[in-house]
Write a structure and sequence with these properties.
two-stranded antiparallel sheet; four-stranded antiparallel beta sheet; 5 helices
Length: about 200
């Protein structure tokens, strides 16, 4: 797989990711009150993530800025890894596709973090507007838009279960976006097809 095809894959994923995020951001009110139930186990709703996966945040006044800058350095490193894998190492298509997915997902969420704070107003109790007069944040302080929710089943844990007995359990509880799916798929390819992913092609093939 050459760089042109890798870039095309990245471009398509970024377009799909950003179109879905902008649509959700401008057509949904924040939280479950504005959700659409596709099925009992698939719902679409708008939430915004200020931190990393699972809402993890870096504490402190400048935590969000530090996180965004870290993401920029990380995606730069992933981009170099992609270029190096194609141009110099003659790596397998499994590896190239996996890196491309991870790069596209990371870049998609970075766009939210860098730009969304200055182009959208708030989604709490009202529909957000694009290119807002009164944006909700500043540069590098945007919130990542998530919308895909798959609560496959929900139950109360038996009282005999240690620590969590009697509490409510929901699977799958995460809410995510297209960029997150791309990252997870890329990582999954590296794990499941590890030997094929890191098998180098003979030079000239």
């Amino acid at each position: 797989m050459n760089l042109r095809r890798a870039y095309l894959l990245i471009f398509i994923l970024l377009i799909v990711d950003q179109i879905t995020k902008i649509y959700i951001k401008t057509n949904f009110i924040y939280g479950e009150s504005g959700q659409i139930e596709i099925t009992s186990w698939f719902k679409i709703l708008l939430i915004e993530n200020e931190g990393m996966a699972w809402g993890t945040q870096i504490p402190g006044e400048h935590g969000k800025l530090i996180l965004t800058i870290f993401r920029l350095f990380a995606v730069t490193g992933i981009g170099y890894w992609l270029w190096d894998s194609v141009e110099r190492r003659h790596s397998s298509d499994y590896l190239i596709v996996a890196i491309s997915l991870i790069f596209a997902g990371a870049l998609g969420n970075i766009i939210d973090s860098v730009f969304y704070g200055v182009i959208f107003d708030d989604s709490y109790n009202n529909l957000a507007t694009f290119n807002a007069v009164n944006p909700y944040g500043t540069w590098f302080h945007g919130r990542v838009v998530d919308m895909l929710y798959f609560p496959f089943f929900e139950t109360n844990l038996p009282s005999w279960v240690p620590f969590w007995g009697g509490s409510q359990f929901k699977f799958f509880n995460a809410i995510f976006n297209i960029a997150d799916m791309a990252i997870s798929t890329g990582v999954g390819i590296l794990i499941v097809f590890n030997r094929k992913a890191f098998h180098h092609k003979p030079f000239g093939n």
